[in-house]
Amino acid sequence: MIQKTTFNPLTTIQSAQNTAMKDKTPAEMTQSFGDFLQNALNSVQSQEKNVQVLTDKYMVGQADISQVMIASSQAELSLQLTSQVRNKVVEAYQEIMRMQL
């Protein structure tokens, strides 16, 4: 039995942008962006925990291998995306630090 999983990052980002832009100060916007990043990291962590749970269930015969593989692939893609976002942020920071005033 395969469960349908839905993850639409564009909807999440758009709703976060709409919420963050309504009459907020820069400090409040920074805080809400930080909250958005924290929620995204928590989502990646929960996906990895789900893979561990499914793997344990598979080992005792309570889960199908396709469930484990799908969850594993989703967690891997989420981790790769998180890693790429981190790389881009570091790269942007380094570029800003190289700027001359």
Automatic annotation (TrEMBL):
It comes from the Bacteria. It is found in: Bacterial flagellum basal body. Transmembrane segments: none annotated. It holds the Pfam family FliE. Keywords: Bacterial flagellum, Cell projection, Cilium, Flagellum. Its main location: other. This is Flagellar hook-basal body complex protein FliE. Belongs to the FliE family. The lineage of its organism: Bacteria, Bacillati, Bacillota, Bacilli, Bacillales.
